[in-house]
Amino acid sequence: MTSRPLTPTLPILIVLAAAPVLVGGKVQAQPAAGNADACGAGLSEPIRARWLSLGGAQGRLGCPTSGQSATAASPQGTRGEQIIFSGGTGAAILRADTGPHAGQMFAIDGCTWRLYFQYGGSSGWLGFPTSEASNTPDGKRQAFEDGDILYQRAPDTCVAERAEEIAGPAARTPAGTSRLDLFEDAQGRREAIASAVSAARARNEGYQPATTLAFVYTEPGPGLLPLKTYSNPTTGDHDTIASADSERADLAGGYEFDGLQGYVWSDPRPGTVALKRFWNAASQASLLTADPRAEADAIARGYVFSRIEGYAPMGPLGG
Known about the structure:
The protein is α+β, with helices and mostly antiparallel strands. The chain has helices spanning 45-53, 110-118, 163-167, 169-172, 196-204, 244-252, 292-300, and strands at 2-3, 12-16, 20-23, 26-29, 36-38, 41-43, 69-70, 81-85, 89-94, 104-109, 134-136, 139-144, 147-152, 157-162, 177-184, 190-193, 208-217, 224-231, 238-241, 256-265, 272-280, 285-289, 304-313.
C-alpha cells in the first residue's frame, strides 16, 4: 500500500479509451467521433453525454480546459483519449475493441484523482479505471486495471493498493483473533469489548459479559479498519466504532478515545457479519449489534440504525 502527498488544486480529467485501428501497419488510437459543444470545446458525443449527466458546466466537472487528446497506452495495453476539466473530479470511458470494460466510462474524484495522476495516470502502474468509486464504512474505493485507490475519510487522504495485495487477502489475513463480547451493566447500558484491558475496565465499572457478538483480528492488515471504543466522561456511556463518520460524531459529542479493540474488514467478506451501530437520541447512547435478534431488541428499546461500522468474522478463523 502506498500513499503520496496531495496538492490542493488540480484540474480534472476524463479518459476515453478508443478502439485501436491499423494505420501503416501500426496500431493507433481511433479519434473520437463528433464535435458536440461543451463550453465552446468540442467533445465526442459519449463524453459530452457523460459530462451532462454529471451536471455539465454547473456540475462537479466544470468546463473543459482543453480538447480531447490521446493518452499513452496503459501497461495493460489499453489506449484512449483524455480531456482536462476545471473542477475537482474526473471521469473516464474505455472504448477498446475487446476486454470486459470496453466502451465504459468511470469518474475519478478528489484525492483519488490526484493520487492517480501522481502515479502517472493511464500510463502508470494503475492503468485505466475499471469501476466507479464505491462507498466503504471509512470512505471510498475505486478499482483500476492493476490495483485500487482507497479514500480514507478521517485522515482525508488516499492510498493505493496493487492488485496482488488485493487478490489474496486470505494469505495475509492476521491469524490472531479475539472475541468481541457485549458487556452490560445493571442499568442496561451495553458496550462491545474485545481487549483484555477494556474488559477489566468494564468490570470495574460494573459491566458483565452478556454474549459474544463476533470476533476481531488482533493485528492490522490490508482492508482492515481499527475497531475503537470511545467513552463520554459526563454520561459514562461507551461507543464501539470503526467508521470515520462515527468517530467524528463521538468527538463532536464530547467522547474521548478509550481503547483499541481489534481490527475488522471495511468491506463484506465470506464468513463475516455486519457490525451495525444503533443510536438512541433520548438517552444519547449507542449500541453495536451483529444479528437480527439484537437489532430488533435495539429498535424495541428506542434505538435507530445509524451505520455499518465494519464486518467481523463470525468465528476465530473467519474472513
